[in-house]
Amino acid sequence: MLAERRHQLILRALRSGGPAAVTDLSEQLGVSPATIRRDLVKLEEDGLLTRVHGGAVVEEGDQPFAEVAEVRVPQKDAIAARAAAMIADGQSVLLDIGTTAYRLARQLHGRRLTVITSNLVVYEELADDEGIELVLLGGMVRREYRSLVGFLTEDNLRQLHADWLFLGTSGVRPGGQVMDTTVVEVPVKRAMIKASGRVVLLADSAKFPGTGMAKVCGPEELDVVVTDAPVDTATRASLQEARVEVIVAGRVQA
Questions:
Q1: How deeply is 64 buried, as exposed, middle or buried, from its count of CB atoms within 10 A (0-12, 13-18, 19+)?
Q2: How far apart are CA 151 and CA 105, in angstroms?
Q3: pTM for this entry
Q4: Could you give the CA distance from residue 183 to residue 104 in angstroms, rounded to a whole number?
């Protein structure tokens, strides 16, 4: 069996049944445990799974946008309201994918702003607001998560500069690293960071540590974190060391 086919079958087995042991995968695919271990190393290097003791696990990718949008809405709204207060009229704002960025967009109606986004739900929310100059980045459509990705999106970003980026995440590690569950989104997020004057991470309490195997950036690339609850001690220390301001729903923590 070709390695590429084995990799497909391994990922399918992990997605359908959760964590799997090397011995189980070896029996299912009819190859040696050593071959499976090499396959797991390669798939982990490609960011497609995480090796655990005796086997591997695939972290769940992004849920459909409509499902995530119904979760922790009051917390997201509190974060969004505080973030919106940071923006002055006349400024340019980059809004990342994700449901918290969408909640922030809802706070921007009636403002005189330029909003740049690859988030199709943000676009739909603001499309009829004539006070907002709206720039939709091009790219390949991720239908389930209502976003645009790929080299076209990244190329568009290289031609733009925004005063603010409001960045989403699936998890923040204790060292302050910002993570994502979907590898294809990471280059777009990095391009957004480069295109922005100030970077604000929007992260509710469930994002500490949250999920994600792909690193977007370190704490040194953030200016502010806006959250809804106190950040754990280890992460707070990492953010403080990187001189990142942490704002907790109406009060400054660090």
A1: exposed
A2: 25
A3: 0.74
A4: 24
